[in-house]
Amino acid sequence: MATVSGTRPFLCGIIEGFYGKPWSHASRLAYAPILSRAGLNTCLYCPKGDPWLRRQWQERWPQQQWQELQELSKAYAAAGVAWGVGLSPFALYQRYGAHQRQQLRDKVGQLEALGAPILAVLFDDMPGDVDALADRQAEIVSDIAAWLPQTRLMMCPTYYSFDPVLERHFGTMPAGYWARLGTLVPAAVDVFWTGNTVCSATIEAHDIQRANE
Fold first, then answer.
1. Contact of 81 with 42, CB cutoff 8 Å
2. In the chain, helix, strand, coil percent, each to 5?
3. Position 213 confidence tier, pLDDT thresholds 50, 70, 90
4. Which of 41, 63, 93, 161 has its CA 20 to 30 A from that of 181?
5. Structural domain boundaries in the chain
């Protein structure tokens, strides 16, 4: 795998993270050797239609679905492709007390049992006009980072682009949201960013500089 600054691998691959009809289990398995042959090294499983990743994230997968996830983890490992899961703990940041923290710890423990090298924590497509949004999201991500020190952790902010469509759909972005995340989220956590629009054709160096500011 190519590396960034000679340290961690640069991730390049696919994300199953869309709405609508999900891929079949057979299709997901088939992608493992396809990605390997194409020179891609990553696959993230985070379909919006998996309720146990989103609105029912506190619950465990039924046995059949759990066995399928185990099969995917093994298949991608055998193909030399880093496979991970995207967890969307819906609206958790609106109330994150001791009970919710334990629920999250239990879920993360179940995901850890998959042996996947990547976990993405996704706050996209959720209401964002919430007090202390960045602080709560950073707290959640920091807890997971402490629980999974050997896992490569990613997060997707609620506002992951300069695109104004996000504020139209999910509310006004809190002042200083990005700067606050940059201060509070552990430096080892990768952050999703799609550029000037939700689906940017290109991302230039000056776009990255603007985001860093």
1. yes
2. 40, 15, 45
3. confident
4. 41
5. 3-212
